[in-house]
Amino acid sequence: MKKQSLLFFLSLLSLVACSQTDSITIENNAVARMFYFSKNNNGFYTKTFINKASKQNYVNPKTEEFNIYINDSLVNGLNCRYINHSVKDSNDTKTLTVTLQTPLADVYIQLTYQVYATIPLVRKQLTVINKSTEDIALTNLDVENLRLQVVDKYMNEVYFNYGNNITRIPYKGDYNDAAIMLFNLAAGQGAVFGNEAPSVLKNTEIYTNIHGCVQVGMRHINETFPFKTWVQPGEIFSSPKTFIYVFNSFKWQDGFEGPYKDFVRKYLGVSLYNKTQSPLYLYNTWRPFEDTLDENLIKDCADKLSATGSDLFIIDAGWYKYSGDFIPDSSKFPHGIKAACDYIRSKGMQVGIWFTVAGVNAKSNIAKQHPEWLVKDKQGDATNLHRLGISKDGPGWGDAMITMSLGSPYYNYIKNCISTYIQQLGVTYVKLDLSIAASAYVYQPELSGDYETNASKLYRDHASSYWTIYERCMQLMDDLHKAFPGILIDCTYETWGRNNIVDYALIEHADYDWLTNFEFEPPVGPISIRQMNYDRSRVIPNSPLLIGNQSINFTNYKYVYFSLASGTPVMVGDPRKLSLEQQTFYNKWNNYLKQMEAKYQYTRYYELYDIFDRPTDNNWDGCYRINTEKQGGLMFFYRNNSSDEQRIFKIPCLQPQNRYKIYSFEAGKTLGTFTGTTLMEKGITVTIQTTYTAQVLTIEKE
Fold it and tell me: Whole-model pTM?
């Protein structure tokens, strides 16, 4: 909430409505959403939501439009009165802004809708403007509250959990539901409901309360991990955004491809895609060294990695004495941590470094000096939100851990601390780790959030601590990006509060999400990696996803590498043990992938369609990473423990009139040239003679 933003919203209140009719429409050539309003009576709501390809209206009469409780009073589109609206066209984006008077005196709602180019999608945000003289409390937020059906509400299937699971209505989503699809197989039509709220706060419901009603917003006050916030006089609250995407196909998988991926890539605001250049191959010290690393070990590792084409060397936990203070451990780094960073750079690599964003050692100076900034449990004791059973003493990376509140002045402290090291060390990547409000490992909701309020904290009760802490975490990443535009921020699943979690809010504010760790040796580890990419990347672009703890020293290291290369390769292990053969392999492929990235930006693309199955031990799997605009990129194929030496794969994302060359970099030869029609309708035959082996092919338009 920013006071200075209020001036903009107040200026809109004085606008004269540019239309005297009782309807407004925002549209492009793919979708149209028309709103009804009356200047003399209450009521503003969606009257029609048209999928132009099917000419079908998906909205039923008298929809509520949105729901929010303000001071425990229900406010929605039916009891608010239209004041004015404005329309803005900017390049290929059209924005409609509508201002409403709520039933509460001097409290206003502003609804913002956007459409983009030719994408059949409408995006929405809700803002509460408090011009009154009293504080107001906000709860039970549904940014979208629509009586909506895709042709027939009884025939719809629900695809949830990143599009991996199917159920029937009703369905209530959770933190794994950044997007939920409602699909009508009989009609060959569907709608995807996107929720950009962070982590455990997001809430999307399909027909759970009122039959035919879809709600997209944050969790209600009577639920676990509720949304609640306070807005003071002269301040505003702006919600996370939502979106509704519609499509036409008899294959549900198509609903997460094509224009949907275009929206995410071009318009969502993926932080990583704002960078002109990002590292392609990352190394992290965590395994096997954990927090035993020192200056000599880092230098020895850098020496070996310099011959592999590695881009980024990440110094993980253990470089400091106490978390929270983050004073370098002079016994490990007698010449200072900067000397180690400088040495890594001298070997041609960028440097990254690890921080806990809220976890501090109880013996740290910051914990002893400011106990009022600590998160407290129900009993009023300082608590470790990250994990139960942690040692109460010791200097280890996880020892004596307690959690600071980002809703306190600790926010400024940790921001300044990280900023200082970015400046002094010249690092280009920071890894923000461990729990801030909820845990990836503790599943009792009562052991999350902050139960203490005091004058130093921005929230007033346990319920409002969740939104404040997550909002401040997002603001921290935004502030660091503003101060250091080139910095890459990795916000781990542990920080975000659930195992294997990623969502739109995270990738809008952070560049990477260290999504999970698989330490299993091949073939289990590589298959697990590809399963995770498969399980997340219909909905979330996979280039921000880091999957850790696969070793550069594993025996079948090529299978490991190519599995990681279907996402963003990040590896651990002991580089000092690399053989010349391994160094040569990594260097060869890292340099080739960089060439392909420079030519096609293939890492921004990941296509599955209905072509590839989820990886298992006994099948084939794969993915396409083809730039659909430049019509070139890479294709990844994996034979696991399947008895088949050949498979045929169609390539739907091509253009039928083009001709394409398919090339094997490994073999150093062109495998053939084909028409787009042939590859789309008949496919390409892929031969892999050995189990647990990968093949990477290049496809280019001639």
Answer: 0.96
Quick one: pLDDT at residue 672? 97
Q: Distances in Å between the alpha carbon of 521 and those of 10, 287, 534, 566, 577?
A: 60, 13, 19, 18, 17
Contact between residue 385 and residue 375 where contact means Cβ atoms under 8 Å apart: yes
Tell me the angle at which helices 557-565 and 524-536 cross, rounded to the nearest 10 degrees: 10
DSSP letter at 182?
Answer: E
Distance separating alpha carbons of residues 582 and 304, to the nearest angstrom: 11
For residue range 429-485, what is the model confidence (pLDDT) as tens digits? 999 999 999 999 999 999 999 999 999 999 999 999 999 999 999 999 999 999 999
Instruction: List the strands of the sheet with 669-675, edge to edge.
Output: 620-627, 632-639, 693-701, 659-664, 669-675
CA–CA gap between residue 349 and residue 362 (Å, rounded): 35
| pLDDT tens-digit series, residues 600-629 | 999 999 999 999 999 999 999 999 999 999
Quick one: pLDDT at residue 397? 80
Contacts of 199 (CB under 8 A, 6+ apart): 175, 437, 438, 470, 496, 497, 498, 501, 503, 505, 506
| Beta strand pairing call for 570-571 and 282-284 | parallel
Q: Is the dihedral of CA 680, 682, 687, 693 positive or negative?
A: positive
Residue 377 near residue 407, CB atoms below 8 Å? no
Q: What is the mean pLDDT of residues 211-236?
A: 96
Q: At which residue do the structure tokens 């080739």 appear?
A: 592
3-class SS at 496? helix
Give the Cα separation of 22 and 44 in Å (integer). Answer: 10
Taking the C-alpha atoms of residue 11 and residue 1, their distance in angstroms, rounded to an integer, is 18
Residue 155, pLDDT score: 81
Residue 652 is predicted with a pLDDT of: 98
DSSP designation for 292? G
Supply the mean pLDDT for the chain. Answer: 95
Q: Per residue in 484-526, pLDDT tens?
A: 999 999 999 999 999 999 999 999 999 999 999 999 999 999 9
Question: What is the DSSP-derived secondary structure letter of residue 190?
Answer: E
Q: Is 367 helix (H, G, I), strand (E, B) or coil?
A: helix
pLDDT at 11 over 70: no
User: Do the beta carbons of residue 224 and residue 447 sit within 8 Å?
Assistant: no
- Rounded to an integer, what distance in angstroms lies between the CA atom of residue 261 and that of residue 452? 42
Helices marked H in 383-461: 410-425
User: Helix, strand, or coil here: 657?
Assistant: coil
Mapped onto helix, strand or coil, the DSSP state of residue 8 is helix
Helix, strand or coil for residue 557? helix
Query: 3-state SS string over 98-165?
Result: EEEECCCCCEEEEEEEEEECCCCEEEEEEEEEECCCCCEEEEEEEEEEEEECCCCCCCEEEEECCCCE
Alpha-carbon distance of 81 to 254, in angstroms, equals 39
Rg of the Cα atoms in the chain:
26
Encode pLDDT of 398-441 as tens digits: 889 999 999 999 999 999 999 999 999 999 999 999 999 999 99
Q: Which two tokens stand for residue 629?
A: 């605009």
